Amino acid sequence: MEIFGNIESCVKEWTDLTLDYKQLESTHKVYQEKLQELSKFQSDCISQIRHQRYRLGLIAKALKRQKPDDEDDEERLECLSKDVEKRKFQLNEIEDDLPRESGLYLKIILGTVNVNILDKAARFKYKDEYEKFKLVLNLIALVLSVINLITNQRVFDLLFMFLTVWYYCTLTIRESILKVNGSKIKGWWRLHHFISTVVGGVMLTWPDGTPYQGFRQQLMWFHVYISCLQYLQFRYQQGCLYRLKALGDRHNMDITIEGFHSWMWRGLTFLLPFLYIGYGFQCYNSYKLYKLSFVEGATWQIPALSLLFLTLFLGNTITTSLVIPQKIKDRVKLKYRYVPLNKYLWSHSKRRARKITHSDSTRSSITGTDKLTPEEQEMIAELSKLTSQDHTKHVSFSEEEEIIGGGTDEESRENSDWKGENENTETDMKKNE
Length: 433
Hints:
One of its GO terms (cellular component) is membrane. Residues 384-433 are annotated as: Disordered. Keywords: Membrane, Transmembrane, Transmembrane helix. The chain crosses the membrane at residues 135-152, 158-177, 263-282, 302-324. It contains 13 helices and no strands. The chain is mostly helical. It has three domains: 8-95; 104-331, no CATH class; 349-432. α1 packs antiparallel against α2. The radius of gyration is 32 Å and the shape is flat. Mean pLDDT is 75; it is low at 259-265, 331-346, 356-371, 389-427 and 429-433.
């Protein structure tokens, strides 16, 4: 640190610092203005998204009541229904960058604190910390379970149960924050963690005795198995998620879970038998506790834990089993990405126009008619010009689509068919001329 020799140098340094402070004041003023502008833009976007969804709801209801009179109306109805679905996905993508309200659980725990993380880098960092937290605590729980299998000390049992309660409480809070910031966490797996928190709390209050000692060894073996299984799931799911995110098939804020999702179908199906073994272990825990509830000296914790383990078994089994029909459904379901809206603007009236042009030119080439009426020639020329302009737009949108990751296979086939129709139309017109 520089030491000033006399008062003159101190005054000079203070003068320079004052000038820097004025610059700081002006920068801070601009910062406050930009914050106000940002808040206004966020409110405007949220309001417009609500308006869009309200109008989309009206259009969707109207489309369900429509009865097409011919094939042309049926095609237009189908195209409009697809565009409505695309718009919903686009609105979801836009909404990911906007602040959201905290849920009831977060409001109870944290109050009205804003937990939105608008910076994407900070959001991903928080998600990575969540994954590391799960991994580290899972390994600690594994070590404690092994120690409890080797020894029979009440203090280690209580430490393990307290760790379980604290772990799942923290997990539910972090998952709620991640959900506010765009993570797609399914309802059952969040509820699963809440129930596991209750299980840990009931276990913590279960007094030592004959029923407890009769179940203790089985409980520790169960936690050893679950900890090893969760470690395997974390390792394989993390690699699978990384690959799918790179391909654009998964959201960047998706997280690893204790169960099985449809995106794990390729590459992680070998985990399914191990998952069902774990669920069977939960069912056996419930049965063993049910039998212990009739033993002399049984407390209320035993039937309560039996019911909770049965709930976990049923919820996990049903949710994981539903992945199979969901996967079959996903094979015929379109996947939409956030692409410029103008790409889909040609799909209604202009698609109808190109259909008429193609049919007229094909009819002319088949019948061998070399001369058309002036009205027909004028109509074909106008429609050909229109489809040619659409073709130019299509090429520019295709280049942009390659930059942002491309569209779906169905959209690619549709665009390819449309390009072929335009080429056939131009060839037929040249023959007619």
